[in-house]
Amino acid sequence: QVQLVESGGGLVQAGGSLRLSCAASGSILRINAMGWYRQAPGKQRELVATSTSGGTTFYTDSVKGRFTISRDIAKNTVALQMNSLKPEDTAVYYCNADITTWARSRFEHWGQGAQVTVSS
């Protein structure tokens, strides 16, 4: 009974910017971490960035200095600001959240995915 809904993404030229947003709703007691993964055609899904409830952030090396993850803990949302985009950033981006529900169960949840395409 937890849902993650993503918005944003689209088509942009190399060097441009896009913003992804994700909102979690449902029977949420606590969001332990929220982040973003991506999957390019023919490749495995990879972690892009994550933010824990303690405020720790992680970025994969290829996006450091270009992407910024931000969370609004009160609103159960996370955003990914992507600047200086490169063609190799093209992928489907998935929101991910580690959530503890009011029933005290703890699972990972996924958004529906948002296509990001960067043209050269």
Report the β-strand fraction as a percent range: over 45%
First-residue to last-residue Cα separation: 41 Å
Contiguous helical run count: 0
Low-pLDDT windows of residues: none
SSE succession: EEEEEEEEEEE
Quaternary organization: single chain
Largest sheet: 7 strands, mixed
Give Rg in angstroms.
14 Å
Structural class: mainly beta
What level of helicity do the residues show?
under 10%
Mean pLDDT: 96
Shape: elongated
Q: How many strands appear in the DSSP assignment? A: 11
Explain what you see.
The chain has 120 residues and is mainly β. 0% of the residues lie in helices and 63% in strands. It contains no helices and 11 strands. The protein has strands at 2-8, 10-13, 18-26, 28-39, 46-52, 57-59, 67-72, 77-82, 91-101, 106-110, 114-119. The strands form 2 sheets. Strands 2, 4, 5, 6, 9, 10 and 11 form a 7-stranded mixed sheet that branches. A hairpin with a 4-residue loop joins strand 7 (67-72) and strand 8. The radius of gyration is 14 Å and the shape is elongated.
Summarize, please:
The chain has 120 residues and is an all-beta fold.
Question: What key attributes describe this structure?
Answer:
four-stranded antiparallel beta sheet, 120 residues, seven-stranded mixed beta sheet
Topology overview:
Blueprint: E1 2-8, E2 10-13, E3 18-26, E4 28-39, E5 46-52, E6 57-59, E7 67-72, E8 77-82, E9 91-101, E10 106-110, E11 114-119
Parallel strand pairs: 2-11
Antiparallel strand pairs: 1-3, 3-8, 4-5, 4-9, 5-6, 7-8, 9-10, 9-11
